[in-house]
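Example 3.2
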Amino acid sequence: MPYPPRPQLRPLQEFAGTATSRPEPRIQALVEEFVIEQYRDGRSLREIAELTDRSHSAVRNILDKHGVHRRGRGASKQPLTSAPPQNHDERQRGGGSRR
């Protein structure tokens, strides 16, 4: 019996359609901040790539650019909720809870 397909996350509204070869600096800064924060909170590169509408390698390059030490391959040892994070702008204004 084949395994069921893994659920795919939808890009967050503020990042959907913003992946271009020369993104607006303000948007790129938000993406980079989000990527670093989510990775440190335990999300996988794949999940972050899906949430930010970026490629796996783009997420990896952001982490490398900022000197973030990457975890080894495989499943995270920390349990995560499967729900995507709240709107990034809401969290910056102090709305919603942080994990």
